[in-house]
Amino acid sequence: MLLTVAYLSKRFGDQPVLRDITCGLAAGQVLAVLGRSGGGKTTLLKILAGLETPDTGTVLLDGQDLLPVPPNERQMVYLYQEPLLFPHLTVFENVAFGLRIRQVGKNEIVQRVSKMLEELDLGAHAQKAPHQLSGGQRQRVSFGRALIIRPRLLLLDEPFGNLDAQTRADMQQLFLRVTRQHQITSLFVTHDSREALTVGTHFAYLDRGLLTSFPSVREFIQDPRTSIAAELTFWESIQRTAFQPDYET
Q1: Domain assignment of residue 178, given as a range
Q2: Domain closes at, from 150, 168, 200
Q3: Which of 18, 28, 82, 129 is the most buried (most CB within 10 A)?
């Protein structure tokens, strides 16, 4: 396992937020964690990123104990709903930022960033400022900036939640294509069951601090907490009704 989380717990005051969280993630996998707001999803990501400290438990990345490691040394990237781009930098320079602070050579930066922008369908926008882009384009720039440094683990906190339905669907497909191409290991939290099914290779449900991992997508779908089976039944009933012939009396 690349990521191993064992018996992770966190309280804020008297309120338990995470309770004995245990899960694992192999290289190249995407763990989609579904759950309602307030269930502990963001707290889990913040602990993995080093932005919160757990009360108990262990976090291992490739066998290394992460808890003593500062956030900037964990080789992870945490993506939010907001792209948080540098407004004074172009698209190219936003994506190149992580490479520049790592003192990567100029020619390599040009090559890698140009290739990444083409993969993200942003090649024609390289010299634009963030305010000249659409919401989906800004999120793609943020995504490219994360991937360009080749993180060991990508943490995604409902990253497409602020986008309209069609742009969100497009970003989900882009995420699938690029992460598969680069073999990026990811933990993707969402409150949208369809999004979880679209992006995930493995599935879990987080509810009131308790994490349930599912051995198969079938069991994930059939768990009543995900509401997926009920939604499928609803749309099947709508389809049957819509195609029933109308008979005049």
Answers
A1: 1-75+153-240
A2: 150
A3: 18
What single letter denotes the amino acid at residue 14?
D
Q: What share of the chain is helix, strand, coil (3-state, %, to 5)?
A: 40, 25, 35
pLDDT of residue 178: 86
User: Is 0.85 surpassed by the pTM of this model?
Assistant: yes
Q: How many CB atoms lie within 10 A of CB 217?
A: 16
Q: What is the CA radius of gyration of the chain?
A: 20
Total number of domains in the chain? 2
What's the one-letter identity of residue 12?
Answer: F
Contact 208, 17 (CB under 8 A): no
> 17 and 33: one domain?
yes
Instruction: Tell me the C-alpha to C-alpha distance, in Å, between residue 59 and each of 24, 93, 150, 181, 203.
Output: 10, 33, 20, 27, 19
Residue 159 CB neighbours (<10 A): 28
Q: Which residues contact 64 (CB under 8 A, 6 or more apart)?
A: none
CB atoms within 10 A of CB 73: 10
Residues whose CB falls within 8 Å of the CB of residue 157, separated by 6 or more in sequence, listed in order = 41, 42, 45, 78, 79, 80, 81, 189
Reported as a single tens digit per residue, the pLDDT across 136-161 is: 899 899 989 998 998 999 999 998 88
